[in-house]
Amino acid sequence: xxxxxxxxxxxxxxxxSGLVRFIKKTFLYLLIFGTxxxxxxxxxxxxxxxxxxxxxxxxxxxxVYARALEIYPGVKLSAxxxxxxxxxxxxxxDKSPSTQGSFSRKDNQIDLVSRQFRFPDGxxxxxxxxxQFKHNAVSRxxxxxxxxxxxxxxxxxAVIGSIHPRLHEDRVLLAQDEIPxxxxxxxxxxxxxxxxxxxxIDPKGIIRAVWANIKAGATVQxxxxxxxxxxxxxxLTRERTLIRKLNEAIMSLLLEYHYSKDEILTAYxxxxxxxxxxxxxxxxxxxxxxxxxxxxxxxLSLPQISLLVGLVKxxxxxxxxxxxQRAKKRRNTVLKVMLEQQLITKKQYKKAIxxxxxNSQGISLSSSPFPAFLDSVKxxxxxxxxxDDLTDKGLKIFTTLNPQxxxxxxxxxxxxxxxxxxxxxxxxxxxxIVSHRNSAEILAIVGGKKSQEGDFNRAMHAKRxxxxxxxxxxxxxxxxxxxxxxxxxxxxxxxxxxVKGKLWKPQNFDHKEHGIVPLHVALAKSYNLxxxxxxxxxxxxxxxxxxxALGAQTDALPYPAVLLGSLTLTPLQVTQxxxxxxxxxxxxxxxxxxSVQDEQNNTLQQYPLRVEQRISADMTYLINANLQxxxxxxxxxxxxxxxxxxxxxxxxxGTTNELRDSWFAGFGGNLLAVVWLxxxxxxxxxxxxxSGALKVWGRMMQKxxxxxxxxxxxQNIKWFWVDSLQQVRLSGRCKNAEYLPFIEGTEPARVxxxxxxxFSNNWLQRLFQ
Amino acid sequence: MFKIYLLVLFIISIINGxxxxxxxxxxxxxxxxxxxxxxxxxxxxxxxxxxxKVITTAAVSQGTVLSRTSAKLxxxxxxxxxxxxxxxxxxxxxxxxxxxxxxKRALRIEPDNAWLWHNMAVLQFYRExxxxxxxxxxxxxxxxxxxxxxxxxxxxVIKQSYIELGEPEKASRYK
Lengths: 769, 175
Hints:
The complex is a heterodimer of chains A (769) and B (175). In chain A, 38% of the residues lie in helices and 18% in strands. Chain A has a 6-stranded mixed beta sheet, covered by helices on one side. Chain A has a 5-stranded mixed beta sheet with strand order 12-1-15-25-26, with helices on one face. Chain A is elongated and about 140 Å long. Chain A folds into 6 domains: 55 residues; 79 residues, 2-Layer Sandwich (Penicillin-binding protein 1b fold); 179 residues, Orthogonal Bundle (Penicillin binding protein transpeptidase fold), CATH 1.10.3810; 209 residues, DD-peptidase/beta-lactamase superfamily (Beta-lactamase, 3-Layer(aba) Sandwich), CATH 3.40.710.10; 99 residues, DD-peptidase/beta-lactamase superfamily (Beta-lactamase, 3-Layer(aba) Sandwich), CATH 3.40.710; 51 residues, no CATH class. In chain A, strand 25 and strand 26 form a beta hairpin. Chain A is an alpha+beta fold and 769 residues long. Chain B has a single domain, classed as Serine Threonine Protein Phosphatase 5, Tetratricopeptide repeat, CATH 1.25.40. Chain B has 175 residues and is an all-alpha fold. The interface between A and B is medium-sized, with 32 and 32 residues.
């Protein structure tokens, strides 16, 4: 009996110990596999962290530079202009400049210490210079360290903006030492008191926060650490699942493992989402400071910083523009925490909570002083550059922007609008593009009367009918088909068949007919009837081919109205057309970017110099000479009010039906510019090319070095005194004779002497009244 | 068996290595893919012409607008010459991007200088961008006025470029 009981109990014991062993084994396996699993998962998350935060590069945007100012004796640069450039480039005014980036001014002399800079074509060391000016030009450059005059010096270029080449976002990044102490302290006090002590997650902090929030009956503290919030910021979806929390926790620990507290804090300050400006997300305190307060973060007051810190919890909920009451309350809560933490005195606290919110009306603010130009840089990056090279690792983009030209253009537009009746000016908009006559580099872009980020960039995107600006293409085509500047045209009304059998009856601007006129007069006075007749004779399709050859891509159909400019182009396209003319028939694509360098200063891509002879130089010479006549005696006569005739400028006015668009395109020896004025809703602006756009052009060029236009004369071009009406050459300069260029062999064959009375008729004078 | 295979592979790779084409500028003299067998001397001779030389002030003056109006040199001239010198040094070292950048800087100061454009054309030739070499040589000629020597040099660049492009009919148009 005892034996069986013994057997029974031993069997029982065997069974129970087997079960325990089983449980133990399972538990052990679970532990092992769980650990392995967790380790693998952690490694996976680690790779994500490293991938995102690789080398501590928190999406560094590309720096965009203006053109580097090159100074040489003789360059048209005044002391005032140089000072303005230096300030744009962030140079400090100093009594006696000794460190890089400082300058001093004494009347017509500027002493400066330039900054060392790595250009795509080599290193430019820092120079101690004395620059002397005379008559608005540089007269001498003296290198103080080398104790001799130099012939050329290149200054470090000014930063005009920063862009994310692929994300189309703007960031203003702060380096560690640029972050105001007040901000750091406030942030840590409110969001993560134990930031410097914990390892990424703060269990004590969570408990404390929960308790404090219960006590206060409001969310006064957050449970997530800054590290966790940073991790959260990088995962755009807003799931609040347990898996997400787990990921967050592990990644926070990993982040703390890899990077220092200060690095994490800096990244947080540059990444945290603080609001929405239409399409643009506001990330980072520096950008938020500019957006909400229109000033750099270094200039913010205590209550302003507190407001921004308060936004972290909910940028839309606490938006100071939309919910000012909430925003104020939140700001004051932040201030209270700062007081409790003894970060501010009671006096400071009292003053701060009493102050108003003092923010802007949510007006969109660009993080660049040149948003329209920056816009075109972004476009060009998209179109012409290898997207794989455009990383978020801190590229350098060298552009063609000339700040002097840009400022003059903006000024000219705004002062011209100011000079008009308020009611009319209010509804007007404008666009300007300025380029180098001979290099197709775009020097300035004005996209509208207010330079703002996100504003419609009319210079690049507003397609408008170009009106009379098309005429040079018509006349150029005629010249190519054997016409000369002295050819006679009929300026008489007619009717032609147009779209869908409709009849087209063009009219001159003055509603008159001028009879028989020489070709050059018809262009100079912009007669519609002669142009239309001529165009119909040579073929509208051929005219459109010329427009395309000049570089304006248009898919307009060859209807007669095209001859008077019913085709639509953007100001940029018009500029391209006139650029080819100005460069004697050589087409070179207009561009804003010179080169792109990576963060190690290796040149990724350099804009290649490209020219292509599209129109022969002799034909272009003739048309340009005619365009000079437009300015000296034709529809652009009004330019003499701004610039003396010795500049021999060439240009063309453009006016569209019912005065909806006012255009002027013109060039001198150095600069070319196109100006457009009109209304966004396409209602009549009430301005002709000469009463509107031309004036803006004139004002602008008065301040710049537009240059005397001395056209390079091809070998086969000869000038003659002629009488077009009689189709004769004259033996000398007679009364009422015309002095015109011809391609050798195309001038009138017959020669006549002046003395005969025939040439005293006043028809020429009459025409130019 | 395997050893023999390796040996064959080794020999083939040596042969391949030796036959790689040398793309230095001296190649301009060696046989282009198309014809012109009858004038190899001229082709070889042309190679020397494409060397951009450091330009004397006198030569530069001949190519610019200013020679018409004043005998005095513009104060910017030394800046241009300085950049020209640097660009030649860059070309000698094969740094074509840098050379182009320097020439562009010079052109911003004196945009109508036919010699600068000539050097640009030559640079494009070295880079084997023959179409651009032609266009830029044409541009230089457009600005060259009465400078016959410069025009001749440009014609040579254009002619050799068309040869390289395999367009002998176009090449034959230029002396």
